[in-house]
Amino acid sequence: MISVTGIGISMDKTSRQKVYEVLESRIQQLRMGRIIAITLILLIGLNVIAAVLETDAGYFRMYGRMFDAFAAVSVLIFTAEYFLRVWCCTENQRFREPVTGRLRYMATPVAIIDLLVILPFLLFPFILLYPVLIPLVRFSRIFWILKASHYSRSMKTFARVFRAKIGLIVMAFFSMMILLVIGSAMIFLAEHDAQPQKFSSVLASMWWGIETMATIGYGDIVPITPLGKIIAGIVALLGVGLFAIPAGIFASGFVEEVNKRKNEETPKSTFCPHCGKKIHDPPEDQK
């Protein structure tokens, strides 16, 4: 009896490990994981396309029922995937406790995204009591594209870069907000008397500040006074420079992440620990 129980536990643990390896552990290196990842990415992409087409009344009349049936099948697949991930997450050392570990995993950003994907459809019987919410549930499939971060290596790289550079990114956007507030206040003082309807307040002038800093140039709000034009030129030049800072931060972060991944994937034994140069294997006749 004990041996049977022991075998049962061992088999359950082995199956959980296999599921974890397929779903979570370097899926690019496992054939089954690669197949599942590609299938789910295609499923997400097709649902996003369906959600976009549903916004057209003609397509919705013709294919609305087919879109709904496809969404129902997709939700069943994603629901099964979600519960499998929660079940096997204990193979990760961070979530090894059976109860608290699973709760911690369910609180992670990727797990929350997975839950938000399926939750509106699981609550659909209650949503039927409020028909006005049904179009919103259909439209929510567009945001399923966020779920692709599970399967896309580039999306995971982007997330790691964002986490590593979050301090610099916040500082860059804070600098942009300072320029936006000061520029909007200065243009309000310069243009309010000449154009009281367009530059009615600093808050209203912020729309002009966003247009100018982002070089959109809609032309719906334009300074006409000499002082206003000078302020606009300064804000435009500074805005171009400040907008380039986040791009530079992300670019350097991606280069660092790519180099780090190359170093992790390259066997350490091929490099000399002292000089760092690559060690070439000796010819066969010298081995």
Give your account of this protein's structure.
With about 290 residues, the chain is mainly α. The protein folds into two domains: about 1-150, Four Helix Bundle (Hemerythrin (Met), subunit A), CATH 1.20.120; about 165-270, Helix Hairpins (Orthogonal Bundle). Helices cover about 70% and strands about 0% of the residues. The chain has eleven helices and no strands. The chain has helices at about 1-25, 30-55, 55-90, 100-105, 110-120, 125, 135-140, 155-165, 165-190, 200-215, 225-265. Helix 2 runs antiparallel to helix 3. The termini are far apart. The relative contact order is 0.06. The model is unreliable at about 1-10 and about 285 (pLDDT under 50).
Task: List low-pLDDT spans.
Answer: 1-12, 283-287
Order of helices and strands: HHHHHHHHHHH
- Please identify the top-level CATH class of the largest domain: Mainly Alpha
| Quaternary organization | single chain
Total strand segments: 0
Domain count, please report it.
Answer: 2
Helix and strand composition category: mainly alpha
Query: What would the average pLDDT be, to the nearest integer?
Result: 81
Q: How far is it from the N-terminal to the C-terminal residue, by CA?
A: 55 Å
Q: Strand fraction band? A: under 5%
CATH architecture of the largest domain: Up-down Bundle
C-alpha-based Rg, rounded: 27 Å
Helices and strands in order:
Elements: H1 2-23, H2 31-54, H3 57-88, H4 100-106, H5 109-122, H6 124-127, H7 134-139, H8 153-164, H9 166-191, H10 202-213, H11 226-265
